[in-house]
Each structure stands twice: as structure tokens, then as C-alpha cells.
Automatic annotation (TrEMBL):
Residues 1-31 form the signal peptide. Pfam families: MlaA (PF04333). The keyword Methyltransferase does not apply. It comes from the Bacteria. Belongs to the MlaA family. PANTHER family: INTERMEMBRANE PHOSPHOLIPID TRANSPORT SYSTEM LIPOPROTEIN MLAA (PTHR30035:SF3), LIPOPROTEIN VACJ-RELATED (PTHR30035). This is ABC transporter. One of its GO terms (biological process) is intermembrane phospholipid transfer. It comes from Litchfieldella anticariensis (strain DSM 16096 / CECT 5854 / CIP 108499 / LMG 22089 / FP35) (Halomonas anticariensis).
Length: 256
């Protein structure tokens, strides 16, 4: 199936970064307006659903068509290299946040991955580190805040950026300033690379839309929170629910 195995280091969890968060919400269709039991994780559901619908309209009009065109004309090896390049830049963020969380081992892995992929992997286009099983956990400042004792806070859908929580939203400015593209001085280059990053990540998720069913707003919300809690706890609560394409939810909970 086209798109599977595109890159070892980019998957739905790439959704934590700015672009991936945007694209998780972009997967959804118009939210169902049926009456639902209040969700304790989502006390602002009315507001969130309206923002969700706005983001979805933006995706349908602009982002998804661009991603489909990119996926059609760009050879698979090129897409893999592009994804590896942007994922490699994220190793710096992981290294810094691992140190802030008191995880020197994971920081060393992230630093080693960045060095190896940036050199032997020719600027990160090839994920050499994963090929030799040098892998660790991605970390961001939202996870750092959790380690420092900050509560998750309510679920929040941000315009343009999509699913988040109050804690993750507070961490977004730091995540932005620990991503190397922020420091590219040439505006045209910086904007161009950012646009490529968004479109490439969106294209990598096109097939994942088939997994969304029932009330799409609720599906995206619950998937995001489940994944995020898994990441914050470093997988201590069990196997990664999104490690394979056949992850499942209670169908009755999402029935129309």
C-alpha cells in the first residue's frame, strides 16, 4: 500500500510537533452534531467542535488537495527522504527535552541519531541510525511540563494547529524555538521548507483517513489523548496503541 513504511521516524506521533498536530485534525470530516454525554476531558466541546469544523474546511479547500498532488507526482523514495530530513531536525528538540526531563540516555541517543544521520545520512535524508537500531523516544516541551508536574488540562482544538491540551499549548512556543527551521534567516527558504514539511506530513497521512469512523471529532479527540498519554508515560501503560495500522477503539462509542 502506498505510503506505508515511508519513514521509520515519522508516524502519527509526529503529530506532537506543530505540523503533525495540524494534520491530525485535518484528517477529520465535518463533526457530527448529535447530542453526546459530556466528556470530562473535553469541557469546552462546543467551542472545540466549531474550531474543528473551521480547520476541516481549510484542509478540504487547500491542504488535502496539495497533499494529494504531492503524493501523486513525488516518487516514494523522495517522499521518504523529505520525511527523514524533517524528522532528523526534531532530534535536537528531543535531546534538549530529554535533558530537561532527567533522561540523559535518551538525550545521548537523540544526539547520536542527529550526528549520524546528518553526516552518513547526508543531511538526514537517509535514516541510517534506525537501520543500526539506534532508536529512542521523541520528547517535546509538553512532555517536559508533565514530568515537572504540570497537569494535562482540558482538551483544546486550536485554529490551524488542531488537537492539543492546555499543557501542550503552553509548550508550543518552546517547541517552536527548539526546531532549527525557526533560525533560517532567509524568509523564502524558511517558509518554503515549512510548507514542504506540512504538505509532506499531510500526504503521509492520507491513507490513515480510512481508520476514522463514526463521530470523527470524538475519534480524533480520543485518539489524540490516548496517544499523548502513552507518550507522556513513556509507554509504561502498555503497548503503543498506534504502532500498527490495525489499532482499534470501541466501535459502539463512535457509532453514528
Amino acid at each position: 500500500m502506498k505510503g506505508k513504511g515511508r519513514r521509520s521516524a515519522v508516524s502519527l506521533h509526529g503529530a506532537r510537533c506543530l505540523t503533525a498536530i495540524l494534520l491530525l485534525v485535518a484528517l477529520a470530516g465535518c463533526a457530527s452534531q448529535r447530542t453526546m454525554e459530556p466528556n470530562p476531558d473535553d469541557p469546552w466541546e462546543g467551542f472545540n467542535r466549531r474550531v474543528f469544523a473551521f480547520n476541516d474546511a481549510l484542509d478540504r479547500a487547500i491542504l488535502k488537495p496539495l497533499a494529494q498532488g504531492y503524493d501523486t507526482i513525488t516518487p516514494q523514495p523522495v517522499q521518504t527522504g523529505v520525511g527523514n530530513f524533517f524528522s532528523n531536525l526534531g532530534e535536537i528538540r528531543t535531546m534538549l527535552n530529554s535533558l530537561l526531563q532527567g533522561k540523559p540516555g535518551n538525550a545521548g541517543i537523540a544526539g547520536g541519531r542527529f550526528l549520524l544521520n546528518s553526516t552518513v545520512g547526508i543531511g538526514g535524508l537517509w535514516d541510517v541510525a534506525t537501520g543500526i537500531e539506534l532508536t529512542g523516544r521523541e520528547e517535546d516541551f509538553g512532555q517536559t511540563l508533565a514530568v515537572w508536574g504540570a497537569g494535562e488540562g482540558p482538551y483544546l482544538v486550536l485554529p490551524f494547529f488542531g488537537p492539543s491540551t492546555v499543557r501542550d499549548t503552553a509548550g508550543m512556543p518552546v517547541d517552536t524555538y527548539t526546531y532549527p527551521l525557526t533560525y533560517v534567516e532567509d524568509d523564502e527558504v524558511r517558509y518554503g521548507l515549512t510548507a514542504l514539511r506540512v504538505i509532506d506530513t499531510r500526504a503521509s497521512l492520507l491513507e490513515e483517513e480510512e481508520l476514522i469512523r463514526g463521530d470523527r471529532y470524538a475519534f480524533i479527540r480520543d485518539a489524540y489523548l490516548q496517544r499523548r498519554r502513552f507518550e507522556v508515560n513513556d509507554g509504561e501503560q502498555g503497548e503503543d496503541p498506534f504502532a500498527t495500522d490495525d489499532f482499534d477503539f470501541d466501535d459502539d462509542a463512535f457509532a453514528e
